[in-house]
Write a structure and sequence with these properties.
By secondary structure, the protein is mainly alpha-helical. The chain contains 14 helices and no strands. The two termini are 15 Å apart.
Length: 341
């Protein structure tokens, strides 16, 4: 069968499908060395994983939205309204309490991460009929992502999404872990059996879709449940989410578009343009995190700037606007994707 690659087998494998497998391989081979990194070089792990991958992937959205000529003009309400809504929502939530603010933001982020995996699965299954097989794939993706999060809600972890105690209020729920664990593994077995049966019966297999779902099961299970380690969770979570998203943006919004569609953005289409593209999103990411560190956190470096309480109440929701805008916009900008050859 013709494989439904987004770009081609090589590009898809290295930048979209392989990250969870490669990260897991690195973890199993060099777990002791990774622990040393966490203990002695936390600044560099923060810089490369959080700033240069996680935050950078947020700004890659610019190349599908605000940087596209005429895009904002075509939908002003969406592109101007979402940032304003993000600021207002952030200010309201922060007034209700810092923990409420970060808890709600974490849940929105989790939903965004889950939907990305579902979205990639839909892209790779775009040539398949809407039948029972695709439904099982959809259920499998949601099971692979939702169950680890529900496990996290009830089981104390050594890591956070944003801040300490952000999910503590969910621990008052009834103990659903035994039942959901049984359902989770039942779904996994059904999906494995279905995939093997289809491959045996038709002598064909949708390679990227199968690899994507398998990688989702592995990265979320090992990152959240099997390992209880902050750096390992961040490594698996951030790389498996951020790198594929950045790759998808570049492929769909730059590489696969004609020069006349790109206008001034065609400078990013050449080989050197790839580095320029990466440089742009890294610059935005570093600028944002520089503001977070110097004005709010003062964890990795500090300029000893004093921020008043009133200004602090405004700065935190303001600095969250790019991230929250990314989460909310992502629910709209991929709804009617253009055909991928």
């Amino acid at each position: 069968m013709k494989q439904p690659w987004i770009h081609n087998a090589k590009t898809d494998w290295w930048f979209i499908l392989s990250p969870p497998f490669l990260v897991l391989l690195i973890i199993f081979l060099f777990q002791k060395q990774i622990q040393t990194l966490e203990n002695h070089y936390s600044f560099y792990t923060w810089l490369f994983l959080i700033v240069f991958v996680d935050v950078a992937h947020v700004y890659s959205t610019l190349f599908k939205t605000y940087f596209v000529k005429g895009e904002v003009q075509r939908n002003k309400l969406l592109y101007l309204g979402i940032p304003v809504l993000s600021l207002i929502l952030g200010m309201i939530l922060f007034q209700l309490g810092s923990l409420i603010f970060w808890s709600v933001l974490a849940l929105i982020a989790v939903f965004h991460f889950i939907r990305q995996q579902y979205g990639f699965m839909r892209i790779y299954a775009r040539f398949e009929p809407n039948n029972w097989s695709k439904k099982i794939d959809e259920i499998a993706v949601y099971s692979a992502t939702v169950y680890p999060m529900l496990y996290w809600f009830k089981t104390p972890r050594a890591f956070t999404w944003f801040v300490n105690n952000e999910f503590d209020w969910l621990q008052n729920l009834p103990d659903y872990i035994p039942l959901l664990t049984a359902i989770y593994f039942a779904i996994l077995i059904i999906w494995l059996f279905k995939t093997a049966f289809e491959a045996f019966k038709s002598k064909r297999i949708n390679i990227p879709k199968t690899v994507l779902i398998a990688g989702t099961f592995l990265s979320w299970y090992f990152g959240i449940i099997y390992f209880n380690n902050d750096l390992l969770f961040t490594f698996l979570n951030v790389v498996s989410h951020g790198i594929p998203y950045i790759a998808l943006i570049y492929i769909r919004e730059i590489k696969q578009k004609e020069n006349q569609q790109l206008n001034r953005m065609q400078i990013f289409k050449s080989f050197s343009g790839i580095f320029l593209f990466v440089g742009v999103i890294l610059s935005f990411a570093f600028l944002e995190e520089f503001l977070w560190e110097t004005l709010i956190w003062n964890e990795h470096f500090s300029l000893n700037m004093m921020v008043s309480e009133n200004l602090f109440q405004f700065l935190v929701p303001l600095l969250v606007v790019p991230q929250l805008t990314h989460y909310l916009l992502d629910g709209f900008i991929w709804r009617k994707p253009k055909k991928v050859n």
